[in-house]
Design a protein that fits this description.
The chain has nine helices and four strands; from the N terminus they run αααβαβαββαααα. The relative contact order is 0.13. Among the domains are: 31 residues, no CATH class; 88 residues, Glutaredoxin. By secondary structure, it is α+β, with helices and mostly antiparallel strands. The protein has a four-stranded mixed β-sheet with strand order 2-1-3-4. β1, α4 and β2 form a beta-alpha-beta unit.
Length: 177
């Protein structure tokens, strides 16, 4: 049985509406989890996602503030790691790494970075799901991801607290007090 192209706008929009066609792979995330969709096997799913963001960045804080006013499909824990770096304990991320790009721990416990993190967030909100579907399309994904990485690199270089986090993480633990 031919299920059509691996990536299609129709498939992505059907995914967003909740009408996933059996066997159709709609985006890179679903592609990696195809066997669970096709066999109906159960995966352990956490009931929340965690967002790690730079609360000292004005643009970042405004964007997160906007998302906080929306009603998500899944519970979201918002972690301001610029102000509370201790929230990163147990994640395997340094503060400087987490400040560089947006990070999300998804409902399966995987850490997503950059555009992948935004896709996890956008999929939680009505109206934003279509944007997530479009941004996940091949070609669009690579272009948007590249643009975000360039923006994030420049933002990181401009903020003093980001540069201070690099210096702090470069200092040996025995000399920090």
């Amino acid at each position: 049985m031919d299920t059509g192209p691996a990536f299609s706008l129709r498939g992505l929009l059907l995914q967003q509406s909740g009408s996933i066609l059996p066997g159709r792979i709609c985006d890179p995330y679903l592609h990696r989890h195809r066997r669970y969709l096709q066999t109906g096997a159960k995966k352990t799913v956490r009931s929340l996602i965690e967002v790690y963001y730079d609360g000292k960045c004005g643009l970042c804080s405004r964007e997160i503030g906007y998302y906080k006013r929306l009603t998500p499909r899944t519970s979201i824990v918002w972690n301001d790691i610029a102000t509370h770096p201790e929230l990163l304990q147990g994640t395997g991320m340094s503060q400087s790494d987490a400040l560089l790009y947006l990070r999300v721990r998804d409902s399966e416990g995987a850490i997503r970075t950059g555009l992948d993190a935004f896709l996890v967030i956008w999929r939680q909100f009505r109206g934003w799901r279509v944007l997530a579907a479009l941004a996940a399309l091949p070609g669009v994904y690579s272009g948007v991801s590249f643009a975000y990485q360039k923006f994030a690199d420049q933002r990181f270089k401009r903020h003093a607290h980001c540069q201070a986090s690099v210096e702090t993480s470069a200092t040996p633990a025995s000399s920090r007090h």
